[in-house]
């Protein structure tokens, strides 16, 4: 039982080292990516609403750059990142500190989302022209919650004040968020800023992400509704005037922000609405998806795989020192690794030791295992060889550690 617990802790530590190194690298990349996105938002994409919102999609691939071979093949990348590798490997405070920060950030986000769910629980269902919505008694902006079971939530004061056709437009806005996949994008954004929590600007830019997606939703809703931008803007203004208290349930709100500058910009976008060609927007979105997938494939193709089998055979003395064998071909010919036993040609090994003047009465043969990236791996087996045993072919049984559950799990995570 103690041995099992020790193995679990060892693999857990390897897991933490492996991912803390990876995500630490991703953090630095996220700073550069964020700078590019913010520059694009305020320059060439400033008046291109759909492109401005789509540029945030680059962060879908940032958490995967940590396994790039570039970190070990480029001299300047080695100098830039080696300190982080060394800190994670040598200091438990660094690697477990990163893990703790990631878990705390995720917990805070989970608690906030849980509060939204609890806020909606207990609300009464209400029929809006054949559509099911949830109505609450508190004063809050309309929002949509639920990744699988979507719920559109409206304040009672709005259902009692607005005309049915105006409520239908509010509902259409929230449904547009759902159809465009914005709730999933918010969810993925929360995952990304949890994994890369050491970049606080990702959290600070959450409002910018929501603002860009809100502008996209405004444009699509106006065109789908068939109503004028003036009517849409007037309804938005009426809803903001009606709801005086701050929103109690954060989400993809119809009148999400009360900051004057952002609100003014949103109204300017609505006022400047021009009908767009759906085919053109669809082509732009498809091109963006292809670009993100292409970037992901490029990263994947230049990254280390989940694991690589270690084919090397090593000789270890009783004193724990590795013995360098210059003739690897002869070594691999003298030792045959089977599924459950190792066959050692004593005569061939004696010849190898004699040629290199190696004096060992006994030694260990190390083999197997896997490598996830240079310096990080697991598994492996060993057999003990006593040279005083009979000459000829030795058959040394062993228990294959590479088939253990924890080893297989660490290979694929």
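-> sequence recovered:
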């Amino acid at each position: 039982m103690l041995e099992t617990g020790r193995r679990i802790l060892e693999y857990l530590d390897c897991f933490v080292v492996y991912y803390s190194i990876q995500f630490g690298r991703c953090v630095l990349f996220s700073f550069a990516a964020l700078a590019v996105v913010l520059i694009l938002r305020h320059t060439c994409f400033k008046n291109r609403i759909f492109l401005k919102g789509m540029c945030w999609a680059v962060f879908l691939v940032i958490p995967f750059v940590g396994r790039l071979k570039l970190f070990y093949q480029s001299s300047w990348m080695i100098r830039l990142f080696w300190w982080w590798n060394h800190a994670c490997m040598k200091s438990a405070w660094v690697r477990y500190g990163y893990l703790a920060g990631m878990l705390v950030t995720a917990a805070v986000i989970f608690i906030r989302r849980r509060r939204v769910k609890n806020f909606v629980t207990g609300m009464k269902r209400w029929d809006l022209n054949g559509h099911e919505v949830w109505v609450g008694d508190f004063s809050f902006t309309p929002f949509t919650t639920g990744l699988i079971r979507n719920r559109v939530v409206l304040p009672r004061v709005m259902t009692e004040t607005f005309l049915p056709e105006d409520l239908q437009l509010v509902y259409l806005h929230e449904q547009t968020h759902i159809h465009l996949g914005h709730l999933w994008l918010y969810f993925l954004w929360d995952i990304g800023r949890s994994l890369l929590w050491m970049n606080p600007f990702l959290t600070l830019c959450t409002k910018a992400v929501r603002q860009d997606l809100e502008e996209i939703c405004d444009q699509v809703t106006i065109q789908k509704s068939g109503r004028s931008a003036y009517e849409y803007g007037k309804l938005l203004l009426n809803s903001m005037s009606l709801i005086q208290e701050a929103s109690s349930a954060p989400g993809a709100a119809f009148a999400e922000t009360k900051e004057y500058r952002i609100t003014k910009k949103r109204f300017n976008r609505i006022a400047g609405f021009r009908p767009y060609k759906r085919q053109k927007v669809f082509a732009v979105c498809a091109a963006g998806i292809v670009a993100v997938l292409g970037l992901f494939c490029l990263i994947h193709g230049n990254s280390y795989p989940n694991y690589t089998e270690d084919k090397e055979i090593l000789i270890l003395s009783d004193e724990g020192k590795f013995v360098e064998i210059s003739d690897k071909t002869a070594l691999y010919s003298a030792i045959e690794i089977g599924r459950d036993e190792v066959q050692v040609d004593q005569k061939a090994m004696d010849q190898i030791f004699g040629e290199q003047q190696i004096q060992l009465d006994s030694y260990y043969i190390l083999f197997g295992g896997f490598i996830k990236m240079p310096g990080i791996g697991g598994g492996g087996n060993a057999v003990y060889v006593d040279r005083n045993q009979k000459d000829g072919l030795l058959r040394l049984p062993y228990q294959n550690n590479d088939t253990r559950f924890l080893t297989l799990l660490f290979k694929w995570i």
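The first strand starts at residue 124 and ends at 128.
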